[in-house]
Design goal:
The protein is mainly α. The protein folds into two domains: 97 residues, no CATH class; 34 residues, no CATH class. The protein contains six helices and no strands. Helix 2 runs antiparallel to helix 3, helix 2 packs parallel to helix 4 and helix 3 crosses helix 4. The radius of gyration is 20 Å and the shape is elongated. The two termini are 27 Å apart.
């Protein structure tokens, strides 16, 4: 079991490093291109760069789930920190997150409490109201 957790951690760390390192490299390359293409030319191209990066961040957050989705949702509200292209794309995390399967949630609850779900709660609605 511990090996599985380590390989999952390694995979997640690799994905996170890959996405953020590629974004940093794109920013560095953008700064470098300003020398040869000119500031005005690069300023016209920058919104598309931001949009591509934001899509990549949103898709990665969905793939990694949990706290990464919450971080994306948080940053989608930070129009004072991020370009508009980022906040618009990350705001899709408010509605685009998939629901967890109720059977998996019930299984975790039953394992944690050591009892069947009906002994823990008087009623348990398996229909999801929202995803986070």
């Amino acid at each position: 079991m511990k090996e599985n957790n380590n390989s999952n951690f390694t995979w997640r760390a690799y994905i996170i490093f890959k996405v953020f390192f590629s974004i940093v490299l794109e920013f560095a390359f953008d700064r470098f291109q300003r020398i040869f293409r000119g500031i005005e030319s690069m300023d016209r191209l920058r919104p598309e760069l931001y949009r591509r990066q934001a899509v990549r961040l949103r898709e990665t957050a969905i793939m990694l789930g949990g706290v990464w989705i919450k971080l994306g949702q948080f940053f989608s509200t930070r129009v004072d920190l991020l370009p508009r292209e980022y906040t618009e794309e990350l705001s899709k995390l408010q509605n685009e997150v998939t629901f967890e399967d109720a059977s998996g949630i019930i299984q975790v609850i039953e394992q944690e409490f050591g009892k069947p779900i009906n002994d823990i709660y008087p009623s348990f609605n398996q229909q999801a109201l929202a995803a986070a």
